[in-house]
Amino acid sequence: MMNKSIILLSGGLDSLVSLAILKNELNVSLALTFNYGQKSFIQEYNASKKIAQYYNINHRVINLDFLAEISDSSLTSNKKIPNLDKTLLDNAEITKKSASSVWIPNRNGLFINIAACFADAQNYSHIIIGANKEESANFKDNSVNFIEAVNLSIKNSTMNKIEVTAPLINFDKKEIIKQGLLYNAPLELIYSCYDTKEKHCGKCESCLRLKRALELNNREDIISKLF
Prior knowledge:
Elements: E1 5-8, H1 13-22, E2 28-35, H2 41-55, E3 58-63, H3 65-70, H4 92-102, H5 107-122, E4 126-128, H6 133-136, H7 144-157, E5 163-165, H8 173-182, H9 205-216, H10 220-226
Parallel strand pairs: 1-2, 1-4, 2-3, 4-5
């Protein structure tokens, strides 16, 4: 089977750079964006739509309303999204608490399995996810172990030999920005914020990690567009 791939496209940094890296090699032709009741869905959808148009790939939204109903995550409920100080990004205790607040139950596992339904039915060979080293510290569904385990599961739950691949699995955010620049990814199109602002709030953990990575790559020009 010739390569034909699905990208799990949130509109954020990691999914964009994963797409940029593998667009040609794995013939990415379908982007799936998930609406699970997150506060930032409209912003994520708009970013994902622009990215899909930029790369000329089909874009589809999957609605998963039940995830908001069963979860009390600050991403989907009336709970306040945690704000952090950038000096605390490497504080394991603080970031673990922040991660717990925004956790969506089995989110990546569910997204991958839904994508696997499309892949199995429509002869896609790969599913691409933006899992990465930096986020794996607090989100185990970004880890090498998770990618290995889900691959074993998918190969036993589908007729086709579908592979889940995470090109950023060994990269931190600084390195991800560097890869994005190397592959000429349109970084100015992303939306990686947990909140619902027109621009990135600059206070949530996701924003702080993105901004720090851009600063470390001396890309104040991109910062001025996103924040």
